[in-house]
């Protein structure tokens, strides 16, 4: 098989091939063709991938390429590629390199001047985002959070005021703790979506404010099984009274009883450190009954 754009080259191409995340019908026709035509498939777990290859009747040999051998063994694949063999890289599910091995091999291949060709397909974060109903024009993928609560909360703190939609992968046995920490750091009202078992029989896409989503998962042990993606709406600037905080509101209210609006806003700003214009606007809205 000749790599597109590499017809005169004697070097093989590295194909990065997405495989299904549950539903085998999501295997693309192009992925099947590439996997049949290459000389070798570099797979995260050869036993796991062998079953997939048997299902599709693909006889191509498999070789292990996982996080423990990728750096060292990568050179073996590079040697094959330089000798003219086409190689496909797959992971256990979805798109390689996305919270999966492959980064070092792709880097090594590109550094050696080997053409790297993506064969796109299923990816859990994109599947979840496409159906979650949260803003999708800008988002960030945070991968897996640390397993322990202290580390997890520290990471969540870093993205607390991130305005783009946040996407996380999480293991089922940690999903409840994860949602508890998210509720604590992001607040109970932040909209969130749990994407569970996507493309599979018990697919769930549940969208609720974080406190309700946590309660939903807590109250149903089935929701603590299977594979999950958590999406959280990005931070948005609080508006109206919420913008100034409870203490500033209390001070402003007290002063408004004693003096004119403009003076109350100025004095409340001096006392609380909150911007005068913001306090003035809140006081004005209050006066208008907004
Ligand atoms: N490379 C994969 C991809 O493209 O999405 C991700 C591999 S990562 C090791 C596995 C994690 O992806 C799971 O723990 C889960 O967070 C997410 N995931 C994979 N399949 C999923 C599915 N069918 N539904 C929901 N999440 C899934």
From TrEMBL:
EC number: 2.1.1.198
Main location class: cytoplasm
Domain of life: Bacteria
Domain Tetrapyrrole methylase: 14-213
Subcellular location: Cytoplasm
Transmembrane segments: none
Alphabetized InterPro entries for the sequence: 4pyrrol_Mease, 4pyrrol_Methylase_sf, 4pyrrole_Mease_sub1, 4pyrrole_Mease_sub2, rRNA_ssu_MeTfrase_I, RsmI_HTH, SAM_MeTrfase_RsmI_CS
Function comment: Catalyzes the 2'-O-methylation of the ribose of cytidine 1402 (C1402) in 16S rRNA.
Name of the featured protein: Ribosomal RNA small subunit methyltransferase I
Species assigned in the record: Pseudomonas graminis
The gene coding this protein: rsmI
């Amino acid at each position: 098989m000749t790599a597109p754009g590499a017809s005169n080259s004697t070097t093989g191409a590295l194909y990065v091939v997405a495989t299904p995340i549950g539903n085998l019908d999501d295997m693309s026709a192009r992925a099947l063709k590439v996997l049949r035509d290459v000389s070798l498939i570099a797979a995260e777990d050869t036993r796991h991938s062998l079953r997939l290859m048997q299902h599709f009747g693909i006889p191509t040999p498999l070789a292990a390429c996982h996080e423990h051998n990728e750096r060292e063994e990568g050179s073996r694949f590079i040697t094959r590629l330089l000798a003219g063999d086409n190689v496909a890289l797959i992971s256990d599910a979805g798109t390689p390199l996305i919270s999966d091995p492959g980064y070092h091999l792709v880097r090594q291949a590109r550094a050696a001047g080997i053409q790297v060709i993506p064969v796109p397909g299923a990816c859990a974060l994109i599947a979840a985002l496409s159906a979650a109903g949260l803003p999708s024009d800008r988002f960030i993928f945070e991968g897996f959070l640390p397993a322990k609560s202290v580390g997890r909360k520290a990471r969540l703190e870093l993205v607390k005021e991130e305005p783009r939609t946040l996407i996380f992968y999480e293991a089922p046995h940690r999903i409840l703790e994860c949602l508890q920490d998210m509720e604590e750091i992001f607040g109970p009202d932040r909209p969130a979506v749990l994407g569970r078992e996507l493309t599979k029989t018990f697919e769930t896409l549940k969208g609720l404010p974080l406190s309700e989503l946590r309660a939903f998962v807590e109250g149903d042990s089935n929701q603590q099984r299977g594979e999950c993606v958590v999406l959280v709406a990005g931070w948005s600037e609080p508006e109206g009274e919420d913008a100034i905080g409870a203490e500033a509101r209390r001070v402003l209210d007290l002063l408004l009883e004693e003096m004119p609006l403009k003076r109350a806003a100025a004095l409340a700003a001096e006392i609380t450190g909150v911007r005068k214009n913001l306090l003035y606007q809140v006081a004005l809205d209050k006066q208008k009954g907004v």
